Amino acid sequence: MESARGEGVKPFTPEKAQEIVMSLQQPAVFCNMVGDWPALHWNVKYLSVMLDGKTIQFRLGLKTVDLVPQFETRCSYVEATLEEFLAWSCGQPSCLSGPFSCYDSSKYWAYADYKYIARIFEDKPEIFQDIRWSDFGFPGRSGKESTLWIGSEGANTPCHLDSYGCNLVLQVEGRKRWHLFPPGDTSFLYPTRIPYEESSVFSKVSVANPDLKHFPKFRNATAHVVTLSPGQVLLVPRHWWHYVESIDPITISINSWIELDADHEARVEEAITRMLVCAIKSAENPSDGDLWLNPTEVEATSHEMNLQYLNQAVSAYIKCQKTSVSEQAHSSSTGAEQRTGASCKRKRREVGCEPDGCRLLTHGFDFSTSKAEELQKIPFGPHLIQVLPQPQEMGSMGAVAVESDGRDLPCENEGEHIGKLRRRRKELVMSNDCEMPAHQMDSDSSPCTSQTALSTNDLLDCLVNPHVINLVARLLLERTGV
């Protein structure tokens, strides 16, 4: 940080930071905004002490990159302590790594992802204040509305887009590489709702090793790639696709999803999608063994429950439309009142996330200006860095390292990294049967399998395509007179 700014002075006021977050429609990295956050000291050893032996769930996957994404349905899971995770990731004797001892750390990665801080630290609420999203213009938002991610090298999240909100991500320890694609690239990413998870639209493409024979349109996708380092905060705008991978031995991130007005219509779309997916997939023969429900979804909900949720979502949308009209009629020079709710991306039944009221963030920013005019108003510079599209010849595996605070680690050789990623699965020699879940080696999951007939999933990919669902939602809302 420039010394002229003075000790403790941040480059953006909370009001300006919120304006950027709510108006910017492309990814960007905030630098020098969180230097005084206690959460920057949340390394694994500290968190281990705070958890005091409590176990959390880790997802395990192969470090090799296949032509098929490693969806969560294709991973193994263990319940372990952070001490055991640290021992395993550091190569200590297996007697110290507990359930991780079944997995060779040179072949596998582990990821404790989507851990709601309010839940795992429910007995230590004072720790919530270590995270201060109020610096970004969201007063009252702390660790209670945030999610924790702890991974080893190679840990990754399959390419997907989030149906709700935009995303602020703080990197605490280690580095992560983000591969982002704009909403306009959706058709190039072959969207699918299998495995099904509310609020996540997955891509069929393995971004790190794309199968261009079966997914040729992916060549047209425009990757924005950035390596996020400790102390930096990434803004992921609404509906931007992202594939995220840990590139250091241990990585820790904290994020918070910021609710948007558009989420009300998105909840209607998600309710329609849930109803269709559950109805069609539940009618299949269970013996087919299709793991269509993501582990984050507890069960396939009944048609009656799904219909109830759809009606709740429609009612919430109508209520907020009326509220919006009323606010516009009685607007003052100060603009609309801000209302924030709990951050919930994965589970619609999280406390405070029910779609029965108008609780989303409202704002008075003008989105009628052109993209060029909008970007001219954004104060890009050393404290706010654009994540620019990669040259076509670099593909999605190139990366831009953002420098700030002198905290950034030296960038690794990208070519060497890619070479490690693209080792073939057949080169692995399994040393322990417990390393590989049976379904992970199912050859039927490969896109290369010849098909003589269309499957239920083929039908669903068309039926619940985001563009189709958006049209259905609008037609449905028209029936209500909105």
From TrEMBL:
Residues 327-341 have a biased composition (Polar residues). InterPro entries: Cupin_8, HSPB1-associated_protein_1, JmjC_dom. The keyword GTP-binding does not apply. GO terms for cellular component: cytoplasm. It is found in: Cytoplasm. Pfam families: Cupin_8. Keywords: Cytoplasm. Residues 327-346 are annotated as: Disordered. Residues 109-273 form the JmjC domain. Coiled coil: none annotated. May play a role in cellular stress response. This is HSPB1-associated protein 1 isoform X2. It comes from Lepidothrix coronata (blue-crowned manakin).
